[in-house]
Amino acid sequence: MGTDCLIERQPRSDPVRVCHVITGLGAGGAEAVLYRLVKADDQNTHHVISLLDDLGFYGGRLTAAGVRCDALNLPRGHVSTRGLRLLHRRLREANPDIVQTWMYHADLVGGLAARLAGLRSVVWGVHCSNLERGMISRSTRTIARLSGALSRFIPARIICCSEMARRVHADLGYVRTKMVVIPNGIDLSEFTPDASLRERTRRELHIHPDEVLLGMVSRWDVQKDHANLIGGLKVLAQDGPGQWRCVLVGAGMTPENADLRALLRAAGVEDRMCLLGTRRDIPAIMNALDVHVLSSSGEAFGNVTVEAMACGVPAVVTAVGAGPFIVGETGWVVPPSDPSRLAGAIREAIAVRLTSPLNWRARQTAARERITANFGLGHMVTAYRSVWSDVMAAGASSHPVMC
Fold first, then answer.
1. Where do the domains of the chain lie, and which CATH numbers do they carry?
2. pLDDT band at 135 (very low <50, low <70, confident <90, very high)
3. Which partner for 300 in 49, 165, 252, 362 could form a disulfide, CB atoms 3.0-4.6 Å apart?
4. What whole-number distance in Å separates Cα of residue 232 and Cα of residue 246?
């Protein structure tokens, strides 16, 4: 043919090859979301690359689910030319349709390596909403600011896990028009009310049926603000004996954590606490609880709040990140870093639990229904697929086939 013409591309029907680049695969919130997304998305193929030196908490789970996982063995907390070269080579070999990155270091390193490898369909993942000094490292804040400037050139889209995360990063210089909010989702068949599981778990934890069991599932981290929680429990304990206990679950939630034990001892609540460390039976823990508390001073999206509410457990949260939106009218929202207000909300929750069974059952039902309506895994998977499809379509339209 003597004249150039454009061929209209047909919608793609074969699986999309997605390569995920993530800083590490430890037991964190973003890592959990990646795991759930990849496991649930049976329409596409997935390959996960961890920048760190091991596959962490979720690597084995991903591998068991049939997902290829690689670790690059890069130094923690550093962006290096060696890392760029190594990731560049891996991405060229994989030649994915989409490069989906997770968290700041992976956004920067993964995005640069992908573009150097000639891959245009890059999607960043933002899973933080608090960049204040003392909350995250100086190097991470620097990378976040640099990424804001580079967001004009590297990613085709930027997925934020909450509206708060989008606002914070837009103010930091991230391109607003590239940003889309996709709330995290959970498997509602895994996290579901289960009376027999509740009874068995409470028996294993030696919790009397008449005791109100509070709990917080979060690793030991400055942004989780366990000092705020323990300060609130101190106020509660000063009210009188009361029939309540509290379980703490997550990395660092063990008697070996000297700082944690010092806080508990100073508050006079050691005898009311169960320190369980990292657990793999989170649905069982959530079902055992009466109230889940998240005392964070910074939190983009509290996955554990969603998990607890999906099990019919009302929640008390601080007004950070997506917390108020997750809870809605089903639980209690208080200002961050205010133990007295936190204690007041917990006190009210305990009172409703003990004195108003009908009201309490209504809250339990409302909590589950809110999660079902807004944070099911299917909603999240569909939203990610839609973003990937749009990015690929935009890339295809910018490279028309000539005949």
1. 15-185+377-395 (3.40.50.2000), 195-374 (3.40.50.2000)
2. low
3. 165
4. 12
